[in-house]
């Protein structure tokens, strides 16, 4: 297809693409909408993913607002980790935190140029309860955090996000992991009958990503979270589509920890950061 046609953008359909009350000026500043209000195929996909996630995270934001209210505290705080251009943080602020009139969104991102642009857009948008931390998720430290989100944080960054959630005692965690290479690499060295499951590189990559997500969910359960794993959007919107949602309801779960350890021992591989 000629490049010009492939790049063609069309006006967003206000019913299916944009949500009521959603800021068109913000979507233009984020380059999701073009300056004349168009939407190309890539931005439509990204917008859909972020809006799906925003919808799935809304109950956690509502609950955290009510919980903080009950305690007479400020907040809640949502940390978006591996934030990239902070599409998710901006849209959550625009749709929920802005109208609520309280709460903070903190975006953590290692690429300084993305942080600089996002800070500028937040200032221009008057989003004064949005903060940006430049650096790795593993090193990020802040006060109490209620909700952790990580959309397509690369490779082991989703594991860093889990450890961040535990360190900051976040009650709600929403992860959509991205590619996972670490466990596939470990599987290369594993021999035995199960190795047939990941003999070919494509299967090793897929199985490695699957095993990582299964162990991530068990690790969260072992730390007292109730976990649900579903899909984020249709596969036409993203191949990295597994949505791991966790809500903490107890301090720990020894049965889930035993299951984690048994599975890691039987397959001979596990994300290195997820230790007990
Ligand atoms: C695939 S992008 C996704 C960005 C954004 N969450 C989204 O969905 O639009 C992953 C982002 O995570 C950042 N990143 C990867 N590993 C990180 C880490 N350990 N700490 C902080 N940021 C990280 C990358 O720089 C990149 O911007």
What key phrases describe this protein's structure?
about 280 residues; alpha/beta; Rossmann fold; 7-stranded mixed β-sheet; 7 strands; globular; disordered N terminus; binds S-adenosylmethionine
Task: Characterize the structure shown.
The model is unreliable at 1-7 (pLDDT under 50). The chain has helices spanning 3-6, 24-29, 41-70, 87-100, 112-125, 157-167, 182-187, 201-222, 254-267, and strands at residues 77-81, 104-109, 130-134, 147-151, 172-176, 225-231, 242-248. The longest helix is centred in the first third of the chain and has 30 residues, at 41-70. It has a seven-stranded mixed beta sheet with strand order 3-2-1-4-5-7-6, sandwiched between helices. The chain contains nine helices and seven strands, in the order αααβαβαββαβααββα. It has a single domain, classed as 3-Layer(aba) Sandwich (Rossmann fold), CATH 3.40.50.150. The protein is α/β, with parallel strands linked by helices and 276 residues long. It binds S-adenosylmethionine. Residues 82-84, 87-88, 108-111, 114, 136-137, 151-154, 157, 160, 178 line the site of S-adenosylmethionine.
Please outline what is shown here:
44% of the residues lie in helices and 14% in strands.
Write the layout of secondary structure elements.
Blueprint: H1 3-6, H2 24-29, H3 41-70, E1 77-81, H4 87-100, E2 104-109, H5 112-125, E3 130-134, E4 147-151, H6 157-167, E5 172-176, H7 182-187, H8 201-222, E6 225-231, E7 242-248, H9 254-267
Parallel strand pairs: 1-2, 1-4, 2-3, 4-5
Antiparallel strand pairs: 5-7, 6-7
Helix pairs in contact: 3-4, 8-9
The chain binds S-adenosylmethionine.
